[in-house]
Amino acid sequence: MVIPRSRSVSERSVLPVVSPTVNFPVMKSVFFSRFFILLPWVLIVIIMIDVDTKRTSRTPAVARAGRTQHQRTARPGAPAGVNRSFIYAITPTYTRPVQKAELTRLTNAFRQVPSFHWIVVEDSTTRTEMVARFLARSGVPYTHLNVFTPRRFKRTGMPRATEQRNAALAWLRQHRTRRDAGVVFFADDDNTYSLELFEEMRGTKAVSVWPVGFVGGRAYERPIVTGGKVVGWYTGWRPDRPFATDMAGFAVNLQVILGNPRAQFKRRGSQPGMQESDFLKQITNVSDLEPKASNCTRVLVWHTRTEKPHMGNEPKFRKDTVVIEV
Ligand SMILES: *[C@@H]1O[C@H](CO)[C@@H](O)[C@H](O)[C@H]1NC(C)=O
Ligand SMILES: *[C@@H]1O[C@H](CO)[C@@H](O)[C@H](O)[C@H]1NC(C)=O
Ligand SMILES: *[C@@H]1O[C@H](CO)[C@@H](O)[C@H](O)[C@H]1NC(C)=O
Fold first, then answer.
1. What is the value of pTM for the model shown?
2. What is the third-level CATH fold of 73-302?
3. pLDDT number for residue 75
4. Where is the active site (predicted)?
């Protein structure tokens, strides 16, 4: 049915060329028929362009986040048109008195990092109201996930946040492709981050490393670099670890994560403090590591850990007259 109709339309459209004695009303009808033929195509092109720009700006699921990302491209120091790779920061978190304060400190840094996407994974059976509200108002593009750690794994001496980090890796493998330029970083919520760290890690080709303050039983732990290559580790704790680094001491190119679909954090057979080594062993070699932060001579991240607040005077019964989120 469509074919004969379109043929008749094209016949009509050649009419003015065939007949030199065209009068004005005919021209007009030709103009309108062309106009209505072209109109749907123009609309399709407009829609395609719109979809394409949305895809290249990589709008996260949350509309609010998409808007902040948009504003960020206009920041001074981030000239429009620069296609920098994204930083995907993975933050496992769990409910505790200092949680909101910790997340606030992170947000104050992350909000200022261009092309940034925050993957927050709660150790919880649901995404909590508090964290959902916090993220929605954070001004940081984000994805909010949750996975509950089974009770039997919640003992001292057991590696922590394994399930949460793996959930974030699974999300990346599902929602990002070979065409996405990015760097993946494990940003625990008890650290303090310098903004410089993010520009250091952004150029990571495979796996990059740098020093971390207040870990390994020393003021800092760092990769030892000779001739631009990592040759060992300066640490005060278990120097026999193949990668004697902290979770906050390395970043991985997104394509390495996608290209090693089975690489993940292990619970089985993993000793505490060996999570980083067990993970990095699956994707790289010490000699291939890319030293950042001036050949690993600058500390740009610190394991500050907020002190557990003293709350011995919290009233048991006569509580405050209003309910306040802390
Ligand atoms: C920007 O895009 C161009 C063309 O796709 C690519 O060659 C270049 O490496 C990209 N730059 C960065 C920093 O990703
Ligand atoms: C790191 O060390 C290498 C080899 O000594 C040198 O070529 C390079 O410039 C250094 N990089 C920085 C950022 O200092
Ligand atoms: C590590 O190095 C060994 C020997 O040089 C090589 O066979 C292996 O492929 C490397 N592994 C990775 C993940 O680069």
1. 0.75
2. Spore Coat Polysaccharide Biosynthesis Protein SpsA; Chain A (3.90.550)
3. 37
4. 276 (proton donor/acceptor)
